[in-house]
Specification:
By secondary structure, the chain is mainly alpha-helical. It folds into two domains: 48-172 and 321-330, Orthogonal Bundle (Peroxidase, domain 1), CATH 1.10.520.10; 190-318, Peroxidase, domain 2. The strands form two sheets. It has a two-stranded antiparallel sheet. A two-stranded antiparallel ribbon has the order 2-3. It contains 13 helices and four strands. The longest helix has 25 residues, at 10-34.
């Protein structure tokens, strides 16, 4: 006579299913990241880093705008479809024609185009280096050339074959996100709260347009357009300054620096800005306003080395998101279109 055993409850079954899915996802991510290596091009294009760095240096001599723009370009690329340069694809249904990607920097796009030309101009390297890897290297170089840390970049990404505007809106953090929303989105990409706060420090050289924070300046005025809501409180003197930059009838091209302390230097000034209640985006200021994340902000504000170390670690993890392998990817001859 067989003993009776209760059937697994629906809750237990669903929990098991979630665990299985998470395990499978982790295995796939590990398999994808396994192909990345700091010496990936050692034999096929040993000068790749020098070539990309030269293009970055030349572009930054022409315009500082390329620095924050390139860092943002890399972040947007990795979060939307993985680090596969799909953000560079140009077409009516491609990513940079939708949502926040419509404001990606033309200077950053030009920098990647120049870097690709420099790499392919080397006979040994022609058509051997992916646009995704060039973007990852360029992001590192704009950080180091504006005062931030220099770090080794894992290479070996392939370029994606698809870019779809429909996925952009739900893939990127919004200007009005609270801490829970930020953590949820970053966790979906394998990043912790500390990673998220460290990567937010990239705003130390960033800019934002008035429409992303104007509602924080005029919370009771029914301001035109905009995003982000009133959000956490703002330093009153700073608020008055920003109202001059962004009046109610602001120009669509009007913008402000996200780091009011040292806007053209990659340092920990961004966190000091948040301590002073001078964060423009609600999603930035909430990192200090929320007690769950405030200690990390204070730590990075007081210890630049700690911020740099955390930023480097987070960039490595970010660079492994959605890496394409095998037939899922290619090495594009032109970064703006598939082969």
């Amino acid at each position: 006579m067989r003993s009776w055993r209760p059937s697994p409850s629906p809750l237990r079954q669903s929990m098991v299913a979630v665990v299985v899915v998470m395990a499978a996802t982790a295995w796939c991510a590990a398999a994808q990241a396994a192909q990345l290596s700091q010496s990936y091009y050692a034999s096929t294009c040993p000068n790749v880093e020098t070539l990309v760095r030269g293009a970055v240096t030349q572009k930054l001599q022409e315009t500082f705008n390329a620095a924050p723009g390139t860092l943002r370009l890399f972040f947007h690329d990795c979060f939307v479809r993985g680090c596969d340069a799909s953000v560079l694809l140009s077409g009516p249904d491609d990513e940079h024609s939708a949502g926040a990607d419509t404001t990606l920097s033309p200077d950053a796009l030009d920098l990647i185009t120049r870097a690709k030309a420099a790499v392919d101009g080397d006979a040994q390297c022609a058509n051997k280096v992916s646009c995704a890897d060039i973007l990852a290297l360029a992001a590192r170089d704009v950080v180091s050339q504006t005062g931030g840390p220099y770090y080794q970049v894992e290479l070996g990404r392939l370029d994606g074959k698809v870019g779809t505007r429909a996925v952009v809106k739900h893939s990127l953090p919004g200007a009005g996100f609270d801490l829970d929303q930020l953590n949820t989105l970053f966790a979906a990409n394998g990043l912790t709260q500390t990673d998220m706060i460290a990567l937010s420090g990239g705003h130390t050289i960033g800019v934002t347009h008035c429409d992303k924070f104007v509602r924080r300046l005029y919370p009771f005025k029914g301001s035109r357009g905009g995003a982000g809501g009133a959000g956490p409180p703002m330093n009153l003197y700073f608020l008055r300054q920003m109202r001059q930059t962004c009046p109610l009838n602001y120009s669509p091209s009007a913008f402000a620096m996200l780091d009011a302390v040292t806007p053209r230097k990659f340092d920990n000034g961004y966190y000091q800005t948040l301590q002073q209640m001078k964060g423009l985006l609600a999603s930035d200021q909430v990192l200090f306003a929320d007690r769950r994340s405030r200690a990390t902000v204070n730590y990075f504000a007081a210890n630049q080395t700690a911020f740099f170390d955390a930023f480097v670690a987070a960039m490595a993890k970010l660079g492994r998101v959605g890496v394409k392998t095998g037939s899922d990817g290619e090495i594009r001859r032109v970064c703006t279109k598939v082969n």
